[in-house]
Amino acid sequence: MRRWLVPLAVSLAVQAVPARAERDPQSGAPIDPRQKRQIPSPITDRFYIRGTVFVPSYSTLLRVDSSQNGTLGTVASGETDLGMPHRKPQGRIELMFRLRERNKLRVDYFEADRNGSQLLTRQILFGDQTFVPGDQVASSLDFRNFALTYTYSFIRNDRFEIGAGLALHFLQAEARGAVPARQLTQEVSGAGAFPTIPLDATWRISRRFALNARGQYFHAALNGFAGALADYHADLQYRWKPNFSLGAGYTIMRVSLDVNDADFPGTFRLNVRGPEAFFKVSF
Question: What is the CATH number of the domain that holds 186?
Fold first, then answer.
């Protein structure tokens, strides 16, 4: 019996070590449990919630065509012609869920609501209404972007992570122009879904610092609709505590839509860019 015990013990030990040990993300080989624990970083986060203070500048072009006879509206600048603010600080929320080791799902929400009041210096055809020089026009423009982004990390180790995948953006825009003195009002709204192709990258520079960059873009034209969406972001994070980070970054977002639709016929261009500061709680 002793002759059988030694081979059996060795066999069980060999099988048990890989089962208990963690595995290297690249090679799949068991990691010695005596090694130090993984350094907390964006690469090891299983979940995070991020709160951001975003201070963007805006550049908006808007054209609303007539829904009655198809007359093209006037291309107007939201900031110059309609008096909307060029810059408006706002908050943003972002969530990330890591599914196994290489799959990530990011949830992001962005909104931009602005109002303006301007004394016109030129004639503007806004939908079915005509605003003339001397009119005091009150306007509003609300924009929403809810995004779901999935990426698969084809490169992942303790220092670098690079992934690509597919994102889906749910867009909504509402525009309103009015001349109260002449009781003229025009409101239009539209909503739809738009895909993009994302690319994400992370570099853990040191135990506490990490650099993140991502971008996504797509252009489509189909059945009276033509649009493009681009979103680029980069940030530097400082790991103050294992589950708490602080950071600063910069974001650029461009939306371009040309629509032949009864609800919102016309053109919409929105460029948003600016710095941001954020905190992140992760596990």
Answer: 2.40.128.90
Question: Phi and psi dihedrals of 32, rounded to 5?
Answer: -60, 120
Amino acid letter at 19?
A
Task: Tokens for 47, please give them.
Answer: 């979940």
Range of the domain at 220: 41-282
Q: Is residue 64 within 8 Å of 83, Cβ to Cβ?
A: no
pTM of the model: 0.82
pLDDT tens track for 211-223: 999 999 999 887 7
Q: How far is CA 65 from CA 10, 137, 158, in A?
A: 80, 18, 54
As for how many domains the chain has, the answer is 1
Domain-embedded: residue 259 = yes
Instruction: Tell me how far apart the alpha carbons of residues 63 and 73 are, in angstroms, rounded to a whole number.
Output: 5
Residue 148 lies in a domain: yes
272: its two tokens: 């948003």
The label of the residue with tokens 């003195």 reads 181
pLDDT below 50 — which residues of the chain?
Answer: 1-2, 4-21, 34-35
164: Cβ contacts below 8 Å, ≥ 6 apart:
151, 152, 154, 197, 198, 199, 200
Strands (E), the chain: 47-54, 57-64, 76-77, 90-99, 103-119, 124-126, 129-131, 136-156, 160-179, 184-204, 209-222, 225-241, 244-259, 266-282
